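Supplementary Methods, section 5.1.

A reviewer requested that the exact input to the structure prediction be made available. We therefore reproduce it here, unchanged from the version used in the analyses.
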Amino acid sequence: MVKGDDLFLIRLEANEISWWEYARNVSPGSRPQQYLTYWSFLKNRGKLPRRLVKEAEWRMEARRKGLLDT
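The structure derived from this sequence is encoded cell-by-cell as follows.
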C-alpha cells in the first residue's frame, strides 16, 4: 500500500470519511477485497479484519519513525 492509502483506510474505518472519498483517493488495486466496490463495502462494513487496519497503522508509524522508505 502507498503511504496515503493507509491513512485513508484508517480514516474510513474510523468513519471520518465516506467510501466515495476513499474510492477517489485509493486505486482499486490497493483496496482490501471487502472494500473493492461500494456494494461490497456496504455488505462488509464493520467486518474488515482488524489485522488489516493494524498493519496500516504499523506502516504509518514505521514511516513516521523513518524505518520504512515507501
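The first helix runs from residue 3 to 13. These observations are discussed further in the main text.
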